[in-house]
Amino acid sequence: MNKDMLRQWADELGLDLIGVAPISRYENVAPQWNPLSILPTAKSVIAFAREIPRGQFLGIEEGTFWISIARQTHPWYTYDLCRRFEDQGILAVPCSPLAPQRWPDGVVFDNAKVAPNVTPSLEYAATSAGLGEVGYNGLFLTPEFGVRQQLGMLFTEYELPPDEPFAGGLCDRERCAACAHECPLGAMGAGKTVDYGAGEILIADIDYKKCHYCKNGAFPDTSYHLAPPNRIAAACARACIACLERKGLTRSASRYKKPFRTREPWGVGIYE
Ligand code: SF4
Ligand code: SF4
């Protein structure tokens, strides 16, 4: 088992990005969110991503066709990768987390250290494994696709050569804020700092109560009634697609003949 094999598996499965974080990058992560609480012998966390076609966002951008866009890869990808690890005799644990607001959802049993369920963050794994960074809008961005990807993760006992954590610089969070300006509900307030595995970064303090009522492309997260909605196609995300494309910061954008945004964006408030 080596890194080339991992990349070959990703290619064969049609995954676009894959990276490895050593488990040492989780030393400051609380047990409730730490893969070591699930697999105490874990050595590597593998994060991967699959591009979402730009066309899936277009109906919402045009205001003519609503579809829900999944933020995570189908569990089949994680399942298949774990099977490939285990065919090599290496234990691998698939992880498709539900909304973190849902957990802990039980009682600490006997002498266990954490309550069920432990829910490692996809964004933390993907940042630590070098795929990209969380933008000011709180959504995961990569230099290849901006917000347009689904994420997946697994942990394994095998120690693979790690990738560097993402160095940052894709989201110009101090000066851009196009996402905040284009939120019709003014839900994105002054920033707060959060560490997603590559040092502290500034992200907007989002008023998710407003997002619950957002009619601008947000979809309910049905995994928990208090979970923030899926915002990957909402106005705050589409502003980012347009912004990164305009600045030439998403590599995949060069293949399109026309820009994503061709007119002023639409937007409606809570009472409209
Ligand atoms: S719109 Fe600008 S500030 Fe907002 S997430 Fe995208 S790049 Fe960052
Ligand atoms: S989901 Fe809607 S209300 Fe929430 S930040 Fe995005 S555009 Fe604003």
Question: Helices and strands in order, then pairings?
Answer:
Layout: H1 3-13, E1 17-22, E2 44-51, H2 55-62, H3 75-87, E3 92-95, H4 122-128, E4 133-134, E5 140-141, E6 149-156, H5 178-181, E7 188-195, E8 200-206, H6 208-212, H7 235-246
Antiparallel strand pairs: 1-2, 2-6, 3-6, 4-5, 7-8
Overview of this structure, please?
The protein has 272 residues and is an alpha+beta fold. The protein has 7 helices and 8 strands. It has helices at 3-13, 55-62, 75-87, 122-128, 178-181, 208-212, 235-246, and strands spanning 17-22, 44-51, 92-95, 133-134, 140-141, 149-156, 188-195, 200-206. It has a 4-stranded antiparallel β-sheet, sandwiched between helices. A two-stranded antiparallel sheet has the order 4-5. A two-stranded antiparallel ribbon has the order 7-8. The model has no long low-confidence stretch (mean pLDDT 95). It binds iron/sulfur cluster (2 copies).
List keywords for this structure.
single chain, 272 residues, alpha+beta, two-stranded antiparallel sheet, 7 helices, 8 strands, globular, binds iron/sulfur cluster
How would you summarize what this structure contains?
The chain has 272 residues and is of the alpha+beta class.
Strand tally, please?
8
What's the end-to-end separation, in Å?
Answer: 56 Å
**Radius of gyration from the alpha-carbon trace, in angstroms:** 19 Å
What is the tally of helical segments? 7
Largest beta sheet: what is the strand line-up? 1-2-6-3
Question: Which small molecules are bound?
Answer: iron/sulfur cluster
What are the low-pLDDT stretches, counting only 5+ consecutive residues below 50? none
